[in-house]
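Section 4.2 – Deliverable D4.2 (structural model, holo form)

The reporting period included a commitment to supply a predicted holo structure for the target in complex with FE2/S2 (inorganic) cluster. Inputs used:
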Amino acid sequence: MARIELCRLDHLDGDRLLVDTPDGDPVLVIRHGDEVHVIDAMCPHQYAPLLGGDVDADGILTCNLHGWRFRLSDGRSPDSEYIQVQRWPCGVEDGVVWIEE
Ligand code: FES
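Output (structure tokens):
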């Protein structure tokens, strides 16, 4: 696995930022409390952008097109074992958000 730097944590717009990986794949960086998560930027249902989805106190993001929900911690849906969004192993070092690919 290779570690890829995505963005500076202080460049997030509020709690999130849309970033392209070096491969050109859009991912969503989201800070929730003290944790940072990186998930696919598009909903797996009908590919609506997840950028505008609300995140509740439990760290569950809701797609604002049809309401599919995803836990930021693992990308899985709390509603169905068959639904999930890709989530990358990630972290922050020296203020820089990274993923492992
Ligand atoms: S596109 Fe996200 S729930 Fe339908």
